Amino acid sequence: MAPRTITPFGPQHPVLPEPIQLKLTLEDEKVVDVLPAIGYGHRGIEKACELNEYPKNIYLCERICGICSAIHGMTYCDVVEKLWPLEIPPRAKYLRTIWAEMSRTHSHLLWLGLAVDALGFESMFMQYWRIREKVLDILEMTAGHRVTQSVAVVGGVRRDIDDDQKKHCIEVLKDVRKEAEALNNVLVNDYTVKARTVGKGVLSYDQAIALGCCGPHLRASGVKEDCRQLGYWAYGDLSFEPITAPGGDTYSRVAVRCGELLQAIDLQLEAFAKMPEGDIAAKPKGSPPANEAATRIEQPRGELFYYAKGNGTRNLERLRVRTPTYANIPSLLVMLPGCEMADVAIIVLSIDPCISCTER
Amino acid sequence: MIDKLKEISKDQLLAEVKKYADSKAKFVTGSCNDLGDKLEVTYYFNASPGMDMSALRFVVGKGEEVPSMTGIYLTAVLIENEMKELFGLKVKDLAIDFGGHMMLAQDSPVLPMLKSEDQKAAAQKGGK
Amino acid sequence: MGIIATSRLKSPWIMHFDNSSCNGCDIEVLASLTPLYDIERFGIVNMGNPKHTDVLVVTGPVNRRTARVLKNLYDQIADPKMVIAVGTCSISGGVFHNCYNVLGGVDKVVPVDVYVPGCAARPEAIIDGVVMALQKLAKLQGVAL
Q1: Which of B26, B29, B98 is facing A322, going by the closest CB pair?
Q2: pLDDT tens column, A273-326
Q3: Which of the four CATH numbers 3.40.50.12280, 3.30.1330.10, 3.40.50.790, 3.30.1240.10 does domain C3-141 have?
Q4: 3-class SS at A66?
Q5: Could you tell me if residue B55 is inside a domain?
Q6: CATH code that applies to domain A4-359
Q7: Interatomic CA distance for residues A38 and A19, integer angstroms
Q8: Chain C CA closest to residue A127
Q9: Any bridge partners for residue A157, and if so which?
Q10: How confident is the model at residue B128 (pLDDT cuts 50, 70, 90)?
Q11: Contact (CB, 8 A) for B88 and B114
């Protein structure tokens, strides 16, 4: 047996924009054991959500994560609406769906860029981020901000998308789809990308379920599961079918996200075509009653779980947030042992880790 | 209201969780509530494949030991460590024990998620 | 005017450290490296090593665990160095002011030279912040920018 060394990976590491530490036990270059050490991003948001009045929590929940901030805000509103329960207007449902899919588009473009950068494919990183800017532009136009869209209110949404904006969005989305498709074709057929990803960090169907994985990570192991199948908001009206890949390796995860990127754009185009006219927000009566509710929404990284408990006052008794990365981190314990040190970065990135989400 | 919630005692926990594991259900997450002198723990599972969620709930006194399900679902290790650290839920036989410093630093507040006196008073008073 | 002082202004190397931010400013810092904003045209290069760094870009509020890491990184950077706090929460704690694990702004731990407000700060504002830091550095070294 070769001598073992323990090498820390992070918390400040060039491939990870966020702080997480992995303690890797190595035999020469081979990883034999891994222990994730988290907690660098822990702020205590769940407690702060009990101290703030419930409408203010939207802004706090949106800042659990800056990449899928719109979905966090909308999920918070969704779970609080379930306390009454409060039905939101149909147009608001479509608008939420559109913004959620827009967030998914920019998030997947972001991830594809970071992933190819971790493979050393820098020009492609720049290309993905170049077309991501177009999506951010339409987000800014419709919601008012590039990153923190802040579109949700309890009972609906804060802004409407008018016809001119709609026309422009459709134009941009079609353009982005064409460019993304061309880039995806290069990515999934590239010899070097295949050599670096096929058979790396394998997670089987059974392991993925036993470890409770979610999102594109789960679907890349062949499990056909997606919260959008629940048909919340407008998803019930749209033609949606989860995208899966059979391999369970890093390559499958890249392929699933490439597919979901195009699917997200198609869903937006379909939602724009079917969106009904009408109100964009219902007014909630009084404070959330003493009740509890749980909701699950598909975020770019997987299933987002919110649990809320009201007590009849303006403050919530308890808010619990379980983000997708929280469910996906344990799978690293299975995926990393056996790989080489140089592959650690891309395997860790393949779960699309969002640390600030995880630790709240 | 949580759909398909089953109230159990802490001694039944492992047997119930085993049933979920045998039916190849997916562990979703857990959550803990501070009820004053007791803690309420809820675990959520998802029938797989499919999106059918159900839950197990038990209530224990503060300071009572509860069994860990990490022997059945390894993935529960994060949430059990978190509840131990933030609520003081005494989980025994954890597969990986972070020793109370998974989320919190050495100088962080102790058991920060328990309700403060101010919070209890505000909830008592109710109001708008 | 020495060659080192000039080069430091013409091609400053930055390092980005995320305290416990929401990621919003982090991706905006990264976005300013990409083709639309292209911060590299000012000679600015993103580095992973504190000893190669002239400008430290910090995002997010300081929490109780990252305070030590941040201090550590700051101490490793050679003088003269500049610190830029990007985003409202790195200035004062912002929306996270009442979270129990948050200490507050970056200036609770290390001295800050330039504050870039915004939640999340826009790439234009971040580039502007770096240029302001360079102006300050130029004055400090007694050279023209």
Answers
A1: B29
A2: 988 988 888 888 888 888 888 898 988 988 889 999 888 888 888 888 988 888
A3: 3.40.50.12280
A4: coil
A5: yes
A6: 1.10.645.10
A7: 8
A8: C35
A9: A152
A10: very low
A11: yes
